[in-house]
Design goal:
This protein has 892 residues and is mainly alpha-helical. The protein contains 44 helices and seven strands. α7 links the parallel β3 and β4. α5 crosses α6 and α40 packs parallel to α42.
Length: 892
């Protein structure tokens, strides 16, 4: 038990907090000891009034005493709908203090991404990617931590922080090992749910909890009472203080202040008065005390509670309809009554205003005391005042969300504008709330469908199932015509795809195309249908799809994006089916404009999405035009990084950059983007097609390097096993997993997996032996137990390779054929494989052919060349095989 202290030894709210203060002190000392020390997150958790705010104030004192930079922020119960509210409080003052040019230079590429969310830069025209904005805010802290070291961030009432801030806080916590900063946050247990709770728990899970903040003991309450009222306070009086307050530090401090104000003597005879005094500190007693200050003061307090943050006497006066002199008088009365106070100037929070509530408990009690109808009306007036002040529709929207629907089209317009502002800074959930509220107003019939469409677009990436309902309703109503209707149908099909309803996505665009009389619109919808069918990995595409697509593409010259899309789709279809690679390249080239993606088909253009350019680049990659493929993959990565898109788009871009390296034979270089892709995919969510792309490519690359155990670890860790996704993954995961099983000695399972790949490829007509190399892998696996079937598989693979016509495909088929032969026939086939693969851009396959030819021909020179190629590729297993062959004297 903490020893009772002498008066003045410690602030009242810090009694019995020695352990917590010592932990904070050690954390500050650790931070200050080394600029490269990892970051620390401390969490103070406790019920209302147990001293969390006082503990953060002590953390500030300790940190500033040691020369730290300290920034602080506080969540607000009525401000949770304001996106980035708390993170702005934390970071904005430092950035605003810089010149605009200095802030831009300091944040670099992140300025245009995170700047709008922080309120220091105007948003761009595009919808911001929430994950990119979150990453930008983490990067901003990392850079500011280096500039302001040692930096301490204090977050009070984190349970009331906005969802966007909590998402950033969780992301920052993940990166604390590389960010030298101390974060101390205080929160109540509970009081948060949904995504906000998930983000808050993720943040605190990696932190260090301080000792639970409990109520004061009777002994400490007695010590605090005597420290405040004098040593003569009688024991019975002290015990009653504890009994009345339950040892709650806030209530104890407030009660003792009222004892002083009332000049009550701290003796047993007066102890009975304590309970009545305590009631005036909270709930109905606080309201009664407020009413005693007069009608004007009550209105002033109500208006301050409505505003919630940035409380200025001028704004409160306008909201409460008070003249300036009366407002100033009310402010003084409320300060004297310990209801409002002047903000701490050392906190440095932006827009802090002239006043703040002494404690969140008081703010909540005052807000809840406002009659419901009046509270709603005051929110409406506040929204208008905020808008008139030039703070924008987004700032006014939190008040509009509280106003009763009243068929007010001005409110609808304001909420739609607020949604656009929220989307522009990366806050789609805030946009969703605004649009859902706009629908309740409701909009006029002629604009109702448009609001639903906007809502569907806002929720596409975050809630595809919800989006489907909104867009279907919108399409069933009048108001969406022409190009906007086509956009809505396309968005609906995208939402169905993201919700794993690919067949429904196909049927949706197919039905709309059949009924749309506009030829250009119909062509776009047909292209969308073929696109969704093209990425479907199952067996349910419409009959004769490839023939119909070829027929349609034959009429296309590439004059508009719908025709270019069909050319890309036809090229991708031809590539996966193993048709002539020359035709594939010719189709893809016709889809470009001066060798580049056409406007509207770019990586960040939303009209078509990323699927088309990915199909285009993949077609080039497997048609041995790796120069064009790599240029497109690199362009995608650069586009998403510069636009701040840090979610699934960036994950796929990294995966395909890795695929480009893997196809080229730069195996070591491939690992880095593939691991980056997997990290992002893990954050976005397991089971999505992008997750499979990252995992499959990494396992494939590790196997090529000869790192079999590491490949198995990755496969086990990330669930690289059936069932497979409904969308196509490049390379096909079944042959990759089959090769992994064979490499780890699970031969029967590996053969079964490759035979399953055979059936799946046959059902879809995908006969490209490079994209789905099941035949060559299965032939090698069956060489011992079923040489006849192995030979037939090798022959079929060679026929398909010659049909496709690339050096890589033919060379790989010849490698397989050579592996099944012996003697001079094996040597001749291996030599032919080397000839083709030497002309191929795929250097790993060339290296493998060299080593195999060297072994078959017993040629030290060929083995040396193969060894050099293998080492340059990072193919450690292949290089070891070459060395073993040389050491064993297999070369003459």
């Amino acid at each position: 038990m903490t020893e009772v202290r002498r008066a003045g030894a410690v602030p009242a709210s810090l009694w019995e907090r020695d352990e917590e203060v010592a932990t904070i002190t050690r954390a500050v000392d650790t931070l200050c000891a080394d600029r490269s020390s990892p970051g620390i997150l401390l969490e103070a958790r406790g019920e209302a009034g147990v001293g969390k705010t006082a503990l953060l104030a002590e953390a500030r004192r300790i940190a500033e005493e040691r020369g730290c930079t300290v920034w602080s922020a506080r969540g607000g119960e009525t401000l949770r709908s304001v996106p980035f509210n708390v993170v702005r409080q934390l970071l904005q003052p430092a950035l605003v203090s810089m010149l605009p040019e200095e802030a831009r230079e300091y944040l670099g590429d992140w300025y245009d991404i995170a700047g709008p969310a922080l309120g220091i830069a105007d948003p761009g025209e595009r919808q911001a990617d929430p994950q990119g904005v979150c990453d930008g805010l983490v990067a901003a802290v990392r850079r500011l931590a280096r500039r302001e070291w040692p930096l301490v961030l204090l977050v009070d009432d984190a349970h009331w922080a906005d969802q966007e801030t909590l998402r950033w806080l969780a992301a920052l916590a993940e990166r604390l090992d590389e960010t030298s900063v101390l974060v101390v946050l205080a929160r109540r247990p509970g009081d948060v749910s949904g995504d906000s709770a998930r983000h808050l728990e993720a943040a605190t899970a990696v932190g260090r909890p301080l000792a639970p903040l409990n109520a004061l003991t009777p002994q400490a309450t007695a010590g605090l009472t005597r420290a405040t009222l004098g040593a003569h306070a009688e024991a019975a009086f002290c015990r009653e203080v504890w009994a009345v307050t339950g040892g709650n530090p806030y209530e104890t401090v407030e009660l003792l202040a009222k004892v002083q104000d009332s000049e009550l003597q701290p003796v047993e005879a007066e102890a009975a008065e304590l309970r009545a005094l305590n009631r005036t500190a909270r709930g109905g007693g606080l309201v009664a005390r407020l009413e005693q200050l007069g009608v004007d003061s009550t209105r002033f307090a109500w208006a301050a509670a409505i505003l919630g943050g940035g409380i200025t006497v001028d704004m409160v006066a306008r909201l409460a309809t008070l003249d300036p002199a009366d407002a100033a008088r009310c402010a003084e009365l409320l300060r004297g009554a310990r209801i409002l106070s002047v903000p701490d100037p050392t906190a440095g929070q932006p827009g802090a205003g002239d006043l703040e509530f002494v404690h969140p408990l008081i703010a909540t009690a005052v807000y809840n005391s406002i009659p419901d109808a009046l509270r709603t009306a005051m929110h409406g007036i506040a929204a208008q005042l905020v808008a008139d002040s030039g703070l924008g529709a987004a700032a006014a929207s939190r008040h509009l969300l509280q106003v009763y629907p009243d068929d007010d089209q001005e409110v609808v317009a304001q909420l739609r504008e607020a949604a656009r502002e929220h989307l522009a800074v990366g806050a789609p959930d805030a946009a969703r709330r605004c649009l859902e509220r706009a629908l309740q107003e409701p909009p006029l019939p002629q604009s109702h469908a448009r609001v639903l469409f906007e809502l569907g677009c806002a929720t596409l990436l975050t809630a595809p199932a919800t989006t489907i309902g909104h867009l279907r309703t919108a399409l069933a109503m009048p108001g969406l015509d022409g190009e906007q209707r086509v956009d809505a149908v396309f968005r609906l099909s995208q939402a169905l795809l993201h919700n794993d309803q690919l067949e429904e996505a196909v049927r949706t665009v197919e039905a709309e195309a059949a009924r749309n009389p506009d030829p250009s619109a119909r062509l776009r919808l047909q292209a969308a249908q073929y696109m969704w069918e093209g990425i479907h990995a199952g067996e349910t595409s419409s009959p004769h799809r490839s023939a119909r697509l070829a027929e349609l593409a034959a009429t296309c010259t590439g004059r508009d994006n719908a025709e270019r899309a069909l050319l890309i789709l036809r090229g991708f279809d031809a590539m996966t089916h193993g048709e002539s690679a020359e035709e594939v390249v010719e189709l893809c080239d016709r889809a470009l404009v001066n060798g580049r993606l056409a406007p509207g088909l770019g990586w960040t253009d939303t009209e078509w999405g990323l699927e088309l350019p990915m199909m285009l680049a993949s077609s080039y990659a497997y048609a041995d035009r790796l120069d064009r493929a790599e240029a497109l993959f690199t362009e995608a990565l650069r586009a998403y990084e510069s636009a701040g898109w840090s979610g699934g788009h960036l994950s796929l871009a990294h995966a395909y950059v890795g695929l480009g390296h893997r196809r080229r034979g730069r195996l070591k270089e491939a690992e880095q983007p593939l691991r980056a892709s997997l990290r992002i995919a893990e954050r976005v969510g397991r089971g999505l097609p992008l997750y499979w792309s990252a995992t499959c490519n990494l396992v494939d690359t590790l196997l090529a390097r000869g790192h079999v155990e590491e490949a198995r670890t990755v496969a086990d860790q990330y669930g690289f096993a059936p069932p497979y996704p409904s969308t196509i993954v490049l390379p096909d995961p079944r042959p990759v997993r089959g090769r992994l099983l064979l490499a780890t000695g699970r031969t029967k399972e590996g053969i079964n997996e490759l035979e399953a790949a055979e059936k799946a490829a046959a059902a879809r007509g995908r006969h490209n032996p490079v994209v789905v190399p099941w035949a060559t892998e299965l032939a090698r696996a069956l060489a011992g137990e079923d040489p006849g079937r192995a030979a037939q598989l090798a022959t079929d693979a060679r026929r398909q390779a010659e049909r496709f016509g690339t050096d890589t495909a033919i060379g790989e088929a010849l490698r397989c054929a050579a592996a099944l032969e012996t003697g001079q026939r094996a040597v001749r086939l291996a030599a032919q494989a080397v000839t083709y693969l030497e002309a191929s851009p795929c250097q790993y396959e060339h290296a493998a052919a060299r080593v195999e030819y060297g072994i078959a021909a017993r040629s030290a020179a060929e083995l040396d060349r193969g060894l050099a190629l293998a080492e340059s590729c990072g193919a450690d297993g292949l290089a070891a095989r070459a060395r073993e062959a040389l050491a064993a004297g297999h070369a003459g």
